[in-house]
Amino acid sequence: MSPLRTGASLEESVSAFKGAESVFAAKQETDFSRLRGLRGNAWTEEQAMKRIVFGISGASGMPLAKAVLQAFCTLPDLEIHGIVSEHAEAVLLAECGETAAFFSDVLHTLYNPADMTAGPASGSWLHDGMIVCPCSMSTLGTIVSGGGQSLLHRAADVTLKEKRPLLLVVRETPLSRIHLRNMLLAEECGATIMPFMPAFYAGENSLEAMMRQFAGRLLDQLKLSHTFASRWKENL
Predict the structure, then answer these.
(1) Strands across the sheet containing 109-111
(2) What would the pLDDT profile of 176-222 be if each residue is shown by its tens digit?
(3) Which DSSP symbol is given to 129?
(4) In which region does residue 52 sit, left (phi positive, over 0), alpha (psi from -120 to 50) or beta (all else)?
(5) Residue 205 and residue 176: Cα distance in Å, rounded?
(6) Are 150 and 216 found together in one domain?
(7) What's the pTM value of the predicted model, to 2 decimals?
(8) Are 146 and 33 contained in the same domain?
(9) Which domain holds residue 92?
(10) What is the pLDDT of residues 105-153, one digit of tens each?
C-alpha cells in the first residue's frame, strides 16, 4: 500500500510508511554489506602489494645498488619504481660494466629523470617509502635545499612532505662539515641517513653477502618482511 494513497486513514498511512522504511533499511544494509566486502577485498589486495621508489644518483657505489635491487627483486609482493640519473648510468658502466638496460630488467617501472610529470612527482601517487642508493653529496645537498630540478630530487622532496620513509644511503669519505650539516638537516626534515655499514656479527665472509644483509636492513626501515638479514641473538 502506498502511504500517499488517496483516502487512506492515518493508521494505514503510518503502517505503510513503517513497512516501506523496513524494506528500504534491509536493502540498504544488503548494499552496504556488499560494498564493504568489495572494498575489503580491494584493500587486502592493495595492502599485499608494496610499492617503493628507488633512486640512484651518480655517486660511486653501483655494485651496492645492483646487489640491493637484485635482492629486492626476489620479493614477489614488492613493486620497485626506479629513477636513475644520467651520471648514475655512466658510473654503472664504469664500476659494473653494465648499461642502463640492467635497470629496466630489475625495475617495475623506470622513469626518465627529467620527467617531472611522472607519478613519484606527486604526493597523491602513493608508495611505501623511497631509497636513494647511492646518494651523492650533491643529491643530498639538493634534497635539503628543496630546489631540485630532476625527478629524483622532486620524488625525495615529495616523500618528505608526505611524511613517508626516505632512506639516504650516503656515499662519501672523508666527510666535510658541509656534508655533515646537510645530513643533520636531512635527518631533522624526516630522512633516515643510512650509509652502508656491514654487520660483521652476522659472520658473512663475502662482500656480496654483506650487501644482501644491508638490503635486509633497508627493508627493516620500511617495515617490509624479508629473510635477508641475520638478527642479533635470533638466527646467529
Answers:
(1) 109-111, 78-84, 50-56, 130-135, 166-170, 192-193
(2) 999 999 999 999 999 999 999 988 887 778 999 999 999 999 999 99
(3) -
(4) beta
(5) 31
(6) yes
(7) 0.78
(8) no
(9) 49-221
(10) 889 999 999 999 999 999 999 999 999 999 999 999 999 999 888 999 9
